[in-house]
Structures are given as structure tokens and as C-alpha cells.
């Protein structure tokens, strides 16, 4: 049975086995393969912006405790510019595709086949890490509220675990979304709730309350800065969903895709600014990886609403991380082979989708430190998927197609080399900080 026939019978990922790689695609939801693109600039902007503006908005202020104002804003700006440039490279790769369907799998197959496995593993690590942070935040916020409201001596850790399990079950149907554009409404809802939390941080700010520093804080060190650097990278990463958005974009052009990329990153930057300035001014070196935990919630109804709003916001973003995990996991499980039996295709999809949600749930319950999650995912997942792979694949495209090596090519080379060098430096520093108990 052909893959097209299977696509018509079931609503789950299948694998194409066309002889020509140009027509073969990474396992996709059947609607992605058969339906005409209907995405607009707004709907794709909402996907990219919401992918980025999640828990990253909470951790930047904490990163400033190692950098101070000047270096912090420099790293923040450079991270945003590098993210935009990498998205531009991805959009160029999308426009070079001979078919509408574009993914990490197809692009890697065209220009560097051996990288297909690496890309999918990194997508899984990065997205799973972000999904873990979403569940951590929801579990922390809601467990604190429930224990406080109940007025009992329930173990906050136990309540946190139960909330994480309940949240995973609640979001399971959303993680089966047939198309990214079907999440537009929840994307906007998530952006609104997170914006409320940013406003909350501004309202309860005190310019004279913290021990913030203009230069590098005296208690900081070079390894401390390197351990926090991935938080800046993590905050501006949304690259795992750029290719699906390019596939779904109606009337796809480089200009449209670049506009989505720039507007999404600019939206994130503008929201991040007050989320950094107000908490760091108020709490200084004591600001938490989730700055809302610095604000007294027991006597403040608006703060309690903020806890609920933040939980809703991150859970609305949860599916945007799980769906790419499922897609990449299907590639690894099926090894690019055709699934001819609809029943077998259904079974494989359900099992893979279940595992891809159970693993983040288990990690979120086991790991309590949000700062460690930010740093680890930032350097291993975000750095690779946002900087290394887009720049590397772009360079391979130029090399294979014989295109002229212009300034974009050389900037891509620099981005790739710098990002690769950051891996051992930041990982080593993070491990040192974990051992020292400072993160």
C-alpha cells in the first residue's frame, strides 16, 4: 500500500518511501501531507512567538545576577540577533526546497544526510527540556497556591507531583493537534497570560530594593557567567517550529517568513525587557529563576492570579514542544520505512506520543531546579537547534549547490564555529556550578 493511501485512511504520522528524496518527508500528520497550506503571517507569528515566550521570560532576570546590567543586555541583544539570523538561514533553506513540505529531516537529507539523526535527537532533547520546564513551573505555582488555600499540612512536593500528572493528562489531547495553526487561539491566550505576569513584576517592583550592579557583580565569576549564558540562548529559541510554519504558510515567500521571524523575536525582546529590568532592580542577586516566586503571594490576590495565569500560559505552550518531539521520535522509531498497515501506524503513533509525554512528566517531577533546566537545555538543545544546525546546513547548501559565498555564508560559518566552541565551555561551567551548589 502506498504512503498516500495510508494517509487517506488514518489521521496519524506515516512515512513516505519514494525513491527520490525530494518527495520523501519526515513522518508528518496526514493533514500536513495532504491538506493545502492555510497559514497566515499572523497565525505563524503566534506559533513562533509563543514557542519562544514561555518559561524563558522568567529566567533572564536570574541570569543577570551573574552578568550585571551592561554585559547582560549585551548578551541579550546578541542572542536575539543571532536567533533572527539563524531563522533567516532556515527560511532560505525552506525556499530552496523543491517541494512545499519542508522539515529538518528533508533539509538534512538534501544537503547532509548523516545529520538527519543528529537533528532529530537534538530536537527531542531541546523540546523535551522546555516541556519539562513548563510542567515544573505549573507544578510549582499551583502547588504553592493549593497548599496555601487549603490551610492544611499537605506536602507541597506531593501536591506538585499530582499537579504535574494532572496537567500532562489534561494537555494530552492538545498534543495531538493536527496542524500548528489549530493552536492559534491558545497561542494568543498564552501570550496574554505571560504578558500579565510581566506587568505584575513591574507593578510590584522597587527600584531601590535590590543589590543590582551595572558591571559584573563581585560575587560572580567567569564560570558563573558561562553557566548562565545558555539562559540567554534558551530565551530566544523558537527554531524547532520554523520549518513546520514554512510548510503551512500560504503563498510562502522569503519575505513573509523573515517577517514572521523578525516580528516574533522583536515581540519576545519587548516582553523580556520589563521582565528583566523590574525583577533585577527589585531583588538583585536574590532573584529566583522564576521571579514570581520572589513576590509575596499570600497577601496579594493579583499575584495569586498571576500564578494561575502563568500556569495556564505555559500549559498552552506545552503542545508546541511535544508535537515536534513526537515528529522527531517517529523518524527514529520508523527509520524512514513505510508503515503499510493502518493499525500498526496507529499503534506506533499512540505509543510514541504517550512516551513523549510521560518522559517530560517524570523528569519534571524528579527535577526541582528550574535554573538547571534552563541552562542545560539552553546549551545542549537550544544552542544546537537554533545556532549550530541552521548555520551548518546553510553552509552545506551553499557548498552543494555551488552558490556564491557571500557575506551571509561567512556569517553562518562564524555562527557555527562560535556555537560549537560554546558547547564544552558552558557544559563544563554548568557542571562545576552544580557541584559547587551555586545553581
From TrEMBL:
<keyword id="KW-0472">Membrane</keyword>
<dbReference type="Pfam" id="PF01490">
    <property type="entry name" value="Aa_trans"/>
</dbReference>
<keyword id="KW-1133">Transmembrane helix</keyword>
<dbReference type="GO" id="GO:0016020">
    <property type="term" value="C:membrane"/>
</dbReference>
<feature type="transmembrane region" description="Helical">
    <location>
        <begin position="69"/>
        <end position="90"/>
    </location>
</feature>
<feature type="domain" description="Amino acid transporter transmembrane">
    <location>
        <begin position="38"/>
        <end position="432"/>
    </location>
</feature>
<feature type="transmembrane region" description="Helical">
    <location>
        <begin position="188"/>
        <end position="207"/>
    </location>
</feature>
<feature type="transmembrane region" description="Helical">
    <location>
        <begin position="219"/>
        <end position="238"/>
    </location>
</feature>
<feature type="transmembrane region" description="Helical">
    <location>
        <begin position="407"/>
        <end position="431"/>
    </location>
</feature>
<protein>
    <submittedName>
        <fullName>10 transmembrane domain, possible aa transporter, putative</fullName>
    </submittedName>
</protein>
<dbReference type="InterPro" id="IPR013057">
    <property type="entry name" value="AA_transpt_TM"/>
</dbReference>
<keyword id="KW-0812">Transmembrane</keyword>
<dbReference type="GO" id="GO:0015179">
    <property type="term" value="F:L-amino acid transmembrane transporter activity"/>
</dbReference>
<feature type="transmembrane region" description="Helical">
    <location>
        <begin position="259"/>
        <end position="283"/>
    </location>
</feature>
<feature type="transmembrane region" description="Helical">
    <location>
        <begin position="373"/>
        <end position="395"/>
    </location>
</feature>
<feature type="transmembrane region" description="Helical">
    <location>
        <begin position="347"/>
        <end position="367"/>
    </location>
</feature>
<feature type="transmembrane region" description="Helical">
    <location>
        <begin position="303"/>
        <end position="326"/>
    </location>
</feature>
<feature type="transmembrane region" description="Helical">
    <location>
        <begin position="117"/>
        <end position="137"/>
    </location>
</feature>
Amino acid at each position: 500500500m502506498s504512503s498516500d493511501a495510508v494517509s487517506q485512511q488514518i489521521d496519524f504520522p506515516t512515512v513516505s518511501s519514494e525513491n527520490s528524496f525530494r518527495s520523501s518527508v519526515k513522518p508528518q500528520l496526514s493533514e500536513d501531507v495532504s491538506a493545502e497550506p492555510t497559514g497566515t503571517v499572523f497565525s505563524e507569528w503566534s506559533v513562533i512567538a509563543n514557542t519562544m515566550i514561555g518559561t524563558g521570560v522568567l529566567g533572564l532576570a536570574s541570569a543577570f545576577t551573574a552578568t550585571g546590567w551592561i554585559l547582560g543586555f549585551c548578551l541579550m541583544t546578541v542572542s536575539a540577533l543571532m536567533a533572527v539570523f539563524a531563522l533567516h538561514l532556515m527560511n532560505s533553506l525552506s525556499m530552496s526546497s523543491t517541494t512545499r513540505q519542508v522539515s529538518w529531516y528533508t533539509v538534512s537529507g538534501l544537503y547532509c544526510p548523516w545529520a538527519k539523526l543528529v537533528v532529530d535527537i537534538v530536537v527531542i532533547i531541546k523540546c523535551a527540556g522546555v516541556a519539562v520546564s513548563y510542567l515544573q513551573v505549573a507544578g510549582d505555582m499551583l502547588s504553592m497556591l493549593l497548599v496555601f488555600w487549603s490551610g492544611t499540612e499537605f506536602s507541597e512536593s506531593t501536591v506538585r507531583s499530582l499537579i504535574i500528572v494532572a496537567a500532562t493528562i489534561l494537555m494530552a489531547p492538545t498534543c495531538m493537534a493536527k496542524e500548528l495553526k489549530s493552536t492559534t487561539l491558545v497561542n494568543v491566550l498564552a501570550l496574554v497570560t505571560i504578558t500579565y505576569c510581566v506587568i505584575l513584576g513591574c507593578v510590584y517592583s522597587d527600584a531601590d530594593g535590590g543589590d543590582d550592579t551595572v558591571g559584573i557583580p563581585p560575587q560572580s565569576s567567569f564560570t558563573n557567567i558561562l553557566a548562565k549564558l545558555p539562559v540567554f540562548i534558551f530565551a530566544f529559541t523558537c527554531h524547532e517550529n520554523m520549518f513546520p510554519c514554512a510548510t503551512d504558510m500560504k503563498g510562502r515567500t522569503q519575505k513573509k517568513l523573515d517577517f514572521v521571524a523578525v516580528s516574533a523575536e522583536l515581540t519576545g525582546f519587548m516582553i523580556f525587557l520589563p521582565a528583566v529590568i523590574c525583577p533585577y532592580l527589585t531583588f538583585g542577586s536574590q532573584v529566583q529563576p522564576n521571579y514570581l516566586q520572589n513576590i509575596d503571594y499570600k497577601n496579594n490576590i493579583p499575584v495569586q492570579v498571576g500564578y494561575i495565569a502563568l500556569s495556564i500560559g505555559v500549559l498552552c505552550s506545552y503542545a508546541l514542544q511535544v508535537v515536534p518531539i513526537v515528529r522527531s521520535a517517529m523518524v527514529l522509531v520508523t527509520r524512514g520505512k513505510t508503515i503499510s498497515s493502518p493499525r500498526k501506524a496507529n499503534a506506533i503513533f499512540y505509543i510514541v506520543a504517550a512516551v513523549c509525554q510521560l518522559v517530560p512528566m517524570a523528569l519534571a517531577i524528579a527535577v526541582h531546579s528550574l535554573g538547571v533546566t534552563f541552562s542545560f537545555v539552553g546549551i545542549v538543545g537550544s544552542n544546537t537547534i537554533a545556532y549550530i544546525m541552521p548555520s551548518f546546513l546553510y553552509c552545506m547548501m551553499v557548498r552543494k549547490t555551488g552558490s556564491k559565498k557571500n557575506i551571509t555564508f561567512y556569517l553562518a560559518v562564524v555562527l557555527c564555529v562560535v556555537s560549537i566552541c560554546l558547547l564544552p565551555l558552558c557544559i563544563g561551567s554548568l557542571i562545576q556550578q552544580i557541584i559547587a551548589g551555586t545553581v
